[in-house]
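Task: sequence design from structure.
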């Protein structure tokens, strides 16, 4: 099973990028093929239909689209920005949706978030659920929102076990939807 994990933050020292790396580590330990995709490597202009009409879809969006299409599972790990997701992540989703029609249809997704606050940025997960439902993706019921992320990522021996439970749920989600993989 191939998983692609994307952090919705490109900040140096990002908690969500650190969580994305931890999820990838647990996945690899469990025998999955897990790649962390850095949105800095797929730098995109803010979506604008005039730009697309004049210049087409940027090659970075096409590359990102290909990476996502090749994955059996996509995990988004996103900060919460004022109850939603950061513009860089929504912008990447919007550009990818211009490469082919309904690119995420039947694609299994996992959703996670991290925040220094108590709720762990769960609002970002809810916002992503709305977007992915609209795009006919299949997001796993199990989500993972890491509160007090600074402390927990730095020093919490129970964290990998919690992430392991989340990863198990994602694998079950993909396994329960074999036709989605076959249809890819
Ligand atoms: C514009 C903006 C809005 C934010 N809104 C929220 C929020 O609604 N809920 C929350 O828990 N944290 C919020 N934060 C704090 C982020 O959770 C915190 O900066 C976090 O470290 C960002 O993720 P990162 O470390 O992966 O970059 C916000 C931060 C910014 C810059």
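Answer:
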């Amino acid at each position: 099973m191939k998983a692609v994990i994307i952090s919705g933050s490109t900040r140096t020292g990002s908690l969500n990028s650190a969580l994305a790396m931890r999820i990838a580590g647990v996945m690899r330990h469990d025998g999955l093929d897990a790649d962390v995709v850095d949105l800095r490597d797929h730098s995109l202009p803010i979506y604008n239909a005039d730009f697309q009409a004049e210049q087409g879809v940027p090659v970075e969006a096409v590359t990102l689209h290909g990476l996502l299409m090749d994955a059996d599972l996509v995990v988004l790990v996103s900060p919460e920005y004022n109850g939603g997701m950061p513009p860089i992540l929504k912008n990447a989703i919007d550009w990818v949706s211009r490469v082919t029609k309904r690119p995420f249809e039947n694609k299994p997704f996992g959703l996670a978030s991290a925040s220094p606050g108590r709720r762990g940025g769960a609002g970002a997960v809810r916002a992503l659920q709305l977007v992915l439902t609209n795009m006919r993706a299949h997001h796993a019921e199990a989500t993972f929102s890491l509160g007090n992320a600074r402390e927990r990522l730095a020093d919490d021996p129970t964290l990998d076990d919690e992430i392991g439970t989340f990863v198990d749920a994602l694998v079950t989600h993909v396994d329960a939807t074999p036709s989605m993989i076959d249809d890819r």
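The helical segments are 15-29, 49-55, 59-70, 87-96, 122-134, 149-154, 159-175, 178-182.
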